[in-house]
Amino acid sequence: MKKGKFTLVENTALVPGMHRLTFSGDGSGIVPGQFAEVAVPGYFLRRPFSVAGFDGGSLTLAVRVRGEGTAALAALAPGAELDIVTGLGNGFDLSAAGERPLLIGGGSGVGVLWPLCRALAADGASVTAALGFNSGTESFYVSDFAALGARTEVYTADGSRGRRGLVTAALGDFEYSSVYACGAAPMLQIIDREAGAKAQFSLEARMGCGFGACMGCTVETVNGPRRVCKDGPVFRGGELIW
Ligand SMILES: Cc1cc2nc3c(=O)[nH]c(=O)nc-3n(C[C@H](O)[C@H](O)[C@H](O)COP(=O)(O)OP(=O)(O)OC[C@H]3O[C@@H](n4cnc5c(N)ncnc54)[C@H](O)[C@@H]3O)c2cc1C
Ligand code: FES
């Protein structure tokens, strides 16, 4: 866990309501799947976001506008300086990937899978990225996965881009040695049921303190209550009680 000053260098509207914020600052020591806590100017509680890109000198977040805090972030101009805590949570276990990992992302859950895809591809894995959206006009990050050499398939609910239907269909469409997923709870629940122990999920929960003290982000697991901020946000298949 590391707290530092980050300067916004680029704010790109990927699709309406979804922004890619790229900061310069110390992005070292981050593990794919970890999240960052952003101090939004004018707001008391930090907002948690999965890390959607990083290297030694930069940090990227993919932010969907949901309420006031995310709207304020999306409105920031390059040059804005923010206080951000990085290296939070446990991240994905890459050692469980095998040769053919399948990455399944839904909506704003897509971003966190990109640094994972990059790391798995660098390890020599043959990665398939299945990215699900409501429609083609809401799709983003697709070319970024393809640029890493991943087989990249888009699923849209209305069929306007890629395959029509739910992205969970990827479980039947491809062979895989492991599954890494982030998205809405009903999507993760289907993956948990069908992929079982081969799966890892990145969860989102309403957070308070963000460092394990308030228990506000607790979820039920077969091992008892667990905090998403401290014990997650990545959980194993078969671990969560939905
Ligand atoms: C580990 C983790 C990783 C996350 N990663 C991302 C990410 O990569 N990209 C992204 O866009 N968002 C992500 N989120 C969700 C993000 O933190 C919230 O959308 C954000 O804090 C809302 O702030 P706000 O001030 O705009 O909304 P608020 O004004 O606080 O709330 C507005 C609305 O958003 C809902 N909301 C608030 N927090 C959450 C939440 N955690 N999950 C679902 N709904 C919420 C509220 O119930 C309310 O309806 C993540 C959350 C967690 C816990
Ligand atoms: S947010 Fe306080 S314990 Fe997780």
Characterise this structure.
This protein is an alpha/beta fold and 242 residues long. The protein has two domains: 2-88, Beta Barrel (Elongation Factor Tu (Ef-tu), domain 3); 94-202, Nucleotide-binding domain of ferredoxin-NADP reductase (FNR) module (Rossmann fold, 3-Layer(aba) Sandwich), CATH 3.40.50. The protein is built from five helices and 15 strands. A seven-stranded mixed β-sheet has the order 10-9-8-7-11-12-15, with helices on both faces. A six-stranded antiparallel barrel has the order 1-2-5-4-3-6. It has a two-stranded antiparallel sheet with strand order 13-14. β11, α5 (185-195) and β12 (199-202) form a beta-alpha-beta unit. The longest helix has 11 residues, at 185-195. The chain starts with a strand and ends in a 6-residue tail after the last strand. Residues 207-210, 212-217, 227, 229 line the site of FE2/S2 (inorganic) cluster.
What small molecules are bound in this structure? flavin-adenine dinucleotide, FE2/S2 (inorganic) cluster
Report how far apart the termini are: 29 Å
N-to-C SSE string, H for helix and E for strand: EEEEEHEEHEHEEHEHEEEE
- The CATH topology annotation of the largest domain reads as Rossmann fold
Q: In CATH terms, what is the architecture of the largest domain? A: 3-Layer(aba) Sandwich
Q: Quickly count the domains.
A: 2
Q: Helix count?
A: 5
Q: What is the number of beta strands?
A: 15
